[in-house]
Amino acid sequence: MIKLFENLCSIWAPSGSEEKLVEFILKEVSPFAECTVQPNGNIICFKKGKKPSVKKVMLDAHTDEVGIIVTSICSDGFIKFATLGGINVAVMLGRKVIFENGTVGVVGIKPTHLTKDDEKKKFPEAESLYIDIGASSAEEAKKYVALGDSAVFEGKYTRLGDDTVKSRAIDDRAGVAVLIALLKEESEYDFYATFTVQEELGCRGARTAAYSVEPDAAIVLEATTAADLHGVSKENLVCALGEGPAISFMDNGTLYDKRLFNAALNSGIKCQVKSKVAGGNNSGAIHLSRSGCPTLAISLPCRYIHSASSVANINDLKAMFELTKKMLLDIAGGNIL
User: Fold this and answer.
1) pTM of this prediction?
2) Rg value, the chain, Cα
3) Residues 32 and 96 in one domain
4) Distances from the Cα of 282 to the Cαs of 23, 55, 63, 233, 304, in angstroms?
5) Does residue 159 sit within a domain?
6) What is the pLDDT of residues 154-208, one digit of tens each?
7) Which phi and psi (to 5°) does residue 171 adopt?
8) Which domain holds residue 122?
9) Model pLDDT, residue 127
C-alpha cells in the first residue's frame, strides 16, 4: 500500500480536474468491484462480500487536491490566480507550480529591497500574488495558459528518516490509498466505496455520492492537521504523527456519531482523538444526506497540510487501513448501530 500511496501522490488532480486520478483508480479497482462514474466525476464502487451487510456502509475518500486557477493574464505576461481550497499565503510564496500541459511557473512576490518596512512585518495579501511563467507579454503567456486553467504546487514524494514521508497531496491520497487497498481484499460483507470530487471546494462530490448510495453509515477517510511542532503547546497539538489515525468527535461541519466514535477508540487498534474542533471534510455533506447518516472520520495526521511539503508517518497510514477494515466489519455486521 505504501508504494501505491507514493504513486497516488504524484498524480496531477486539483479540484475540478480529477480525471487523471479517476482513470488511475478505475484501472486499480475495476477488477475487484462494480464501478460507475457519476456525471460530476465521482466513482461509486460496490464491493461484493462473502455475505450481505446488515447495515449498508459507504467508505469515502476525496480525489482532489488543493491548487490554483488562472483568473487573468496581465499585459506584462504575469498571471493572476485564485486558490482551489484553503491555502495559507505563507506556503505559496516562491513556490513552483505545474499546469496540466506541463507549463511551469513560480508564485512571485515583491523583492525585499522594494518592500517597505511595515510590509516586511506581515505576509502579503493573497490578491497581490502572481505567477511568473517567464512570459514578457500577455500574447506570449496565452500560448501556454488560458483563463480557467489550473495548477498544483510541485512537491515530490520523499522519504524522511525511518517512517516519515513528505509530499504534496497527502490530503487525500492517503484516504484513496486505503480505500483502494480495501477494495482489492476479500471482504466479509458487501460495502460501497466512493471516490469523490471537489471536497476542497465544499464537499460537492460527497453530497451527490451519498444521495445515490443512501448508506446506513459512512466512514470518511481523510488527512487532518497535525500540530506536533516545535514551540506548540500540548493543548494545541490537534494530533501527532506516530500515534495512529485521528478520530474526530466534532469539527466545523460535523458532530460525529458517538457510537462510532467510541467504537473506534475501543477497537484495540492504535489511534488518537483529534483534540481541536477545527476544519472539516466530506462528513459535513454525507451526514446530512437524505434522512441523515451516522458518520465517522478516520484521518491521517499530517503536518503542513495543504502545502507542497506535507509530512506524514507511514505507520499511521497502516493503522488507518487496519482501523477502517475493523470498523467496516463491525458496522456492516450490525455490531455497532
Assistant:
1) 0.94
2) 21
3) no
4) 21, 20, 11, 29, 20
5) no
6) 999 999 999 999 999 999 999 999 999 999 999 999 999 999 999 999 999 999 9
7) -90, 105
8) 67-153
9) 79
